[in-house]
Amino acid sequence: MSMLRFTNVSTHYGQIRALDDVSLHVEEGEIVSLIGANGAGKTTLLMTLCGDPRATSGDIFLGERNITHQQTAEIMRSQVAIVPEGRRIFSRLTVEENLYMGAFFATVSEKQELMHQMFDLFPRLQERRSQRAGTMSGGEQQMLAVARALMSQPKLLLLDEPSLGLAPIIIAQIFETIEKLRKDGMTIFLVEQNANQALKLADRGYVLENGRIVLEDTGARLLSNPQVQNAYLGG
Ligand code: ATP
Questions:
Q1: Mutate to test the pocket of ligand 1, among 9, 12, 13 (most ligand atoms within 8 A of CB)
Q2: Which of 32, 45, 108, 136 lies at a 20 to 30 A Cα distance from 54?
Q3: Same domain, 67 and 102
Q4: 84 within a domain of the structure (yes/no)
Q5: Are residues 142 and 168 in the same domain?
Q6: From 10, 33, 43, 82, mutation site for ligand 1 pocket: most ligand atoms within 8 A of C-beta
Q7: 48 CA to middle of ligand 1, Å?
Q8: Does ipTM top 0.90?
């Protein structure tokens, strides 16, 4: 049983077909990367999974459950969490308050426990726990966005371009964290323009072009694929 499965999913914005007959799967414990250029439809794919926009055809399954026609709030209660593009943290709230928002349904003591787990994972956030999130660096905000998503104790973590706009050293830290999460049993679906890093990390990967999956293989084989090298890895 796949943790996540798309079968022949299309999504339209009016007349524009942003996703075209997409099929993919993510198995428990895997890191799966989806790479593609600007406008390929990567964000649309993640958002379709979250129920907005809705798929115009095809089906999306989380485990056995067909979630294609479920409400976003319902989907987000099924142990999926998303780190959206652009982080979307609450900039006027403190680090601690942002983390609390991520664990909306937990009791106060569970929230405390989870927050300490996050501080173990990201010691920098502990140092900054009382700082307003909007005043932190881009890298710190990205760590906070990941930690906030983890506060809901997901089994499947969706990441939309976590490396966007960050310095190489910070990107390396973010990818190390993803690797660590997987070791602890998390399943990860990573959407990235940074093809090199995303494929190095991935068990399997997909290449999305103009809303269509054009290649599917192991991360290692995609990295050495001439078509991928020319289009996404600078030749
Ligand atoms: P990027 O890396 O630049 O964010 P992406 O791969 O995530 O790109 P999407 O944001 O999914 O791409 O966009 C896919 C296509 O759908 C683009 O042509 C975009 O202009 C179009 N699109 C996205 N959102 C909407 C919308 N709300 N209404 C109409 N068209 C949209």
A1: 13
A2: 32
A3: no
A4: no
A5: no
A6: 43
A7: 12
A8: yes
Q: How far, in Å, are 45, 72, 80, 119, 182 from residue 151 at the CA level?
A: 23, 18, 11, 11, 16
d(Cα 44, Cα 42) in Å, to the nearest integer?
Answer: 5
- Within a 13 Å sphere around the CA of 138, how many CA atoms are in the beta-carbon half? 12
Q: Kindly give the distance from the C-alpha atom of residue 19 to the centroid of ligand 1, in angstroms, as a whole number.
A: 10
Cα separation, 52 vs 54, whole angstroms: 5
Report how far residue 220's alpha carbon sits from residue 24's, in angstroms, rounded to the nearest whole number: 18
The two three-digit tokens of residue 233, written as one number: 């890895």
Name the DSSP class of 85. Answer: T
Strands (E), 108-202: 156-160, 187-192
Enumerate the β-bridge partners of residue 16. 13
Question: For ligand 1, atom 2, which residue shows the shortest CA distance?
Answer: 38
192 C-alpha vs ligand 1 centroid, how far in Å?
Answer: 14
Domain co-membership, 158 together with 229: yes
Domain span including residue 108: 89-153
Cβ neighbours of 66 (radius 10 Å): 13
The per-residue pLDDT for range 184-200, each reduced to its tens digit, is: 999 999 999 999 999 99
